[in-house]
Amino acid sequence: MSSRGRNQRVDDFADESGVALLRIEPADVYDPAIIAIAERSGSHFLVYDREKVIAQAVAHEEMDYETAVEWHEFNTFCAWLGDGTPAFADLTSSG
Q1: Which of 55, 64, 86, 87 has its CA 20 to 30 A from that of 40?
Q2: pTM
Protein backbone atom coordinates (compact mmCIF):
# COMPACT_ATOMS: atom_id res chain seq x y z
CA MET A 1 0.00 0.00 0.00
CA SER A 2 1.29 3.45 -0.86
CA SER A 3 2.08 5.91 1.92
CA ARG A 4 -0.76 8.13 0.68
CA GLY A 5 -3.20 5.21 0.94
CA ARG A 6 -1.79 4.28 4.32
CA ASN A 7 -2.17 7.84 5.60
CA GLN A 8 -5.79 7.87 4.45
CA ARG A 9 -6.35 4.55 6.20
CA VAL A 10 -4.91 5.99 9.42
CA ASP A 11 -7.05 9.14 9.09
CA ASP A 12 -10.17 7.09 8.32
CA PHE A 13 -9.55 4.80 11.31
CA ALA A 14 -9.11 7.79 13.63
CA ASP A 15 -12.25 9.48 12.28
CA GLU A 16 -14.43 6.35 12.48
CA SER A 17 -13.21 5.13 15.87
CA GLY A 18 -12.75 8.47 17.57
CA VAL A 19 -9.27 7.33 18.58
CA ALA A 20 -6.56 9.97 18.44
CA LEU A 21 -3.49 8.15 17.13
CA LEU A 22 -0.16 9.63 18.21
CA ARG A 23 2.06 10.45 15.23
CA ILE A 24 5.69 11.44 14.96
CA GLU A 25 5.79 15.07 13.92
CA PRO A 26 6.05 16.53 11.40
CA ALA A 27 3.49 14.02 10.16
CA ASP A 28 4.06 14.87 6.50
CA VAL A 29 7.67 13.73 6.92
CA TYR A 30 7.15 10.62 9.06
CA ASP A 31 3.74 9.28 7.97
CA PRO A 32 5.34 7.40 5.03
CA ALA A 33 7.08 5.23 7.65
CA ILE A 34 3.77 4.00 9.15
CA ILE A 35 3.30 0.30 8.49
CA ALA A 36 0.31 -0.63 10.68
CA ILE A 37 -2.29 0.24 13.24
CA ALA A 38 -2.03 -2.16 16.18
CA GLU A 39 -3.79 -2.76 19.49
CA ARG A 40 -2.29 -3.22 22.97
CA SER A 41 -4.56 -3.82 25.98
CA GLY A 42 -7.52 -2.24 24.21
CA SER A 43 -5.60 0.85 23.05
CA HIS A 44 -4.76 1.46 19.41
CA PHE A 45 -1.39 2.79 18.28
CA LEU A 46 0.67 3.24 15.15
CA VAL A 47 3.58 1.04 14.15
CA TYR A 48 6.44 2.64 12.23
CA ASP A 49 9.23 1.01 10.26
CA ARG A 50 12.30 2.05 12.28
CA GLU A 51 14.63 2.27 9.27
CA LYS A 52 12.11 4.32 7.29
CA VAL A 53 11.85 6.77 10.20
CA ILE A 54 15.64 7.19 10.10
CA ALA A 55 15.63 7.50 6.30
CA GLN A 56 12.93 10.19 6.48
CA ALA A 57 15.01 12.12 9.03
CA VAL A 58 18.03 11.97 6.74
CA ALA A 59 15.99 13.09 3.73
CA HIS A 60 13.95 15.83 5.36
CA GLU A 61 15.52 16.91 8.66
CA GLU A 62 19.05 17.70 7.47
CA MET A 63 20.63 14.90 9.52
CA ASP A 64 23.24 12.37 8.49
CA TYR A 65 22.46 8.71 9.17
CA GLU A 66 24.35 8.44 12.46
CA THR A 67 22.82 11.65 13.83
CA ALA A 68 19.33 10.51 12.82
CA VAL A 69 19.82 7.15 14.57
CA GLU A 70 21.15 8.80 17.73
CA TRP A 71 18.45 11.50 17.79
CA HIS A 72 15.56 9.07 17.27
CA GLU A 73 16.94 6.47 19.70
CA PHE A 74 17.10 9.12 22.42
CA ASN A 75 13.97 11.16 21.60
CA THR A 76 11.55 8.87 19.82
CA PHE A 77 12.17 5.12 19.99
CA CYS A 78 12.42 4.98 23.78
CA ALA A 79 9.69 7.55 24.55
CA TRP A 80 6.60 6.46 26.48
CA LEU A 81 3.61 8.76 25.99
CA GLY A 82 0.92 6.52 27.44
CA ASP A 83 -1.20 3.80 25.92
CA GLY A 84 -1.17 5.34 22.42
CA THR A 85 2.62 5.46 22.20
CA PRO A 86 3.74 4.32 18.73
CA ALA A 87 5.83 1.19 18.30
CA PHE A 88 8.86 0.87 16.03
CA ALA A 89 9.49 -2.33 14.10
CA ASP A 90 12.93 -3.37 12.94
CA LEU A 91 12.15 -5.13 9.69
CA THR A 92 15.80 -5.59 8.72
CA SER A 93 16.82 -7.95 11.52
CA SER A 94 17.43 -11.56 10.82
CA GLY A 95 17.56 -13.90 13.61
Answers
A1: 55
A2: 0.87
